[in-house]
Amino acid sequence: MSKVEFKENTAIVVFGASGDLAKKKTFPALFGLYREGFLSPTTKIFGFARSKLSDSQFKERISGYFKLPNEADKEKCSKFLELCSYVSAPYDKDDGYIELRNQIEKFETSRNVKESHRLFYLALPPSVFTVVATNLKKNVHPESKGLARIVIEKPFGHDLESAKALTQSLAPIWKEEELFRIDHYLGKDMVKNLLVLRFGNEFLNSQWNKDHISSVQISFKEPFGTEGRGQYFDDIGIIRDVMQNHLLQVLTILTMERPVSFDAEDIRDEKVKVLKAFKPLNNQDILVGQYTKSEDGSKPAYVDDETVNPNSKCVTYAAIGCEIENERWSGVPIVLRAGKALNEGKVEIRIQFKAVPSGMFHNISRNELVIRVQPNEAIYMKLNAKLPGVSTSTTLTELDLTYSNRYKDFYLPEAYESLIMDVLHSNHSNFVRSDELEVSWALFTPLLNYLESDNAPVPEKYPYGSRGPKNLSAFLQKHGYVFESDDVYQWPITRPKKVLTNPGSPKI
Fold it and tell me: Engineering a disulfide at 367: which of 212, 353, 404, 432 sits with its beta carbon 3.0 to 4.6 angstroms away?
């Protein structure tokens, strides 16, 4: 993250300050920005929650998740905590908001602030969004004397109807330009890099279409199960949890047309356009699964959670086929897949290109562009090359941009840090607009209704710690993905003891 101009004398209020989201994500992100010099020391931060905590208890609670890579950061932690204070009050009564307003005005007076700059972060469940937003507007909004921004966390509804209801409840209170719907995947550095990668490289942009690309995958893998959140997850499922939001957001950036500028509305206009070009999801073009006990019996099945119905059909793994009906993507199979309790934790984009024309080659491997979003961010291209030396064999190798190797001295911000910076500078590029939200829910709601109906398919069982349902490979092959055998692709390449001709070798 490059140095940017400070936003001076900002009042930041984190609602739900005593909750898990605030202590694990929001406050650590604010401290991370402060630690790295991106949050002005003139900032004032308030925690607001119902819990009865003393100021010292509040500070002890939020600092438990701060990252302190150096000894000097301990002093920065102390200075950051001096910027923080706590207000305990109910969310549905005026008194606490009036006290908050008085404290903010006291801070602004002490700093001789003429134009207020206030940021309200709602680390709260959706059930109280409207209540808090209404009371903030009534009691704490600076009105004509400055700017206010309000941030809300997902889920932005449970389906299309509830998403519309949420939008309609907030719209009369806060303007769309004041509202920031945060999807933390849009703050990940590799996701932010997609615009530059696609549109800043002609050798990629010119190939980014149905004439050259044979399939697209976006995959999300978690190595753990619901871990005590079974009752919550049973009402959500993997599709609502990460696919309708995180993965779809990534896919829209990956497939949209070139925006006319980096302006937030230009970018979001193109995202909405490509979403409207999606063909309705086919209920029969899906693979759903639910994890069982690990093969060694050490990890529990999903339904072993005592808060979960033992007959639950909740989907913990899903692969969904998508089609975009426009000139660029018509006929290109796209798969979104996500699952819990798998063999590894990883999020990646995989673009496989069409086969090399036959003639001088036979069965040569396909090119593939892989963008690893997490962990260990990387972009690499699989390509064919001749083995060094006297060999006439070809090998599948890669051009590798691994961030940890190439950008050793760069600070890579956490997603929440990056997005809070965007809010401070009123940049909506990486936030979800209301029409975008409704189009995405319109795409997924019919599928969710089907999966939660009496006619829903029984999820295929897969062991905790496995790669997922056994039919996954067949599903991906059906959607155009061509697998390479392990003996064709290896890394690193070592000098062969004997020159062998692999299936991709030229006919010479």
Answer: 353
Query: In whole angstroms, what separates CA 360 from the centre of its chain?
Result: 43
Q: Are the CB atoms for 124 and 141 separated by under 8 Å?
A: no
Q: Tell me what pLDDT residue 294 has.
A: 96
Q: Rounded to an integer, what distance in angstroms lies between the CA atom of residue 424 and that of residue 416?
A: 12
Residue 501: what pLDDT?
43
d(CA 247, CA 410): 26
Distances (CA, A) of 83 to 148, 174, 470: 19, 27, 53
Phi/psi for 460 (5° steps) reads -70, 135
Amino acid present at 343: N
> Angle at Cα 60 formed by Cα 78 and Cα 89, nearest 5°?
115
Burial class (CB in 10 A: 0-12, 13-18, 19+), 159: middle
- Is residue 44 within 8 A of residue 461, CB to CB? The reply is no
Rounded to the nearest angstrom, the gap between the alpha carbon of residue 58 and the centroid of all alpha carbons in its chain is: 29
Active-site residues: which are they?
246
Could you give the percent of the chain with pLDDT greater than 90? 81
| 71 neighbors 19 (Cβ within 8 angstroms) | no
Q: CA 224, CA 280: separation in Å to the nearest integer? A: 31
Task: Give the SS3 label for residue 76.
Answer: helix
Neighbours of 437 (CB within 10 A): 23
d(CA 210, CA 508): 32
pLDDT of residue 293: 96
The 3-state secondary structure of 234-294 reads HCCHHHHHHHHHHHHHHHHHHHCCCCCCCCHHHHHHHHHHHHHCECCCCCCCEEEEEEECC
**Is residue 499 very low, low, confident or very high in pLDDT (cuts 50, 70, 90)?**
very low
Alpha helices in 142-209 (DSSP H): 160-170, 189-192, 194-199, 202-205
Give residue 409's pLDDT.
82
Mean pLDDT across 272-289: 97
46: left (phi over 0), alpha (psi -120 to 50) or beta: beta
Q: Is the pTM of this model over 0.85?
A: yes
**What mean pLDDT do residues 131-155 have?**
93
Q: Which two tokens stand for residue 42?
A: 């003139």
Measured CA angle at 130 (ends 127, 133), to 5 deg: 130
Query: What is the set of domains in the chain, with CATH numbers?
Result: 11-153 (3.40.50.720), 187-414+432-478 (3.30.360.10)
Give the separation between CA 131 and CA 89, rounded to whole angstroms.
Answer: 13
Which pLDDT value is given to residue 392?
Answer: 77
What are the backbone dihedrals phi and psi of residue 349, each rounded to the nearest 5 degrees, phi first? -110, 135
Residue 10 to residue 148: CA distance in whole angstroms: 10
Q: How many CB atoms lie within 10 A of CB 500?
A: 11
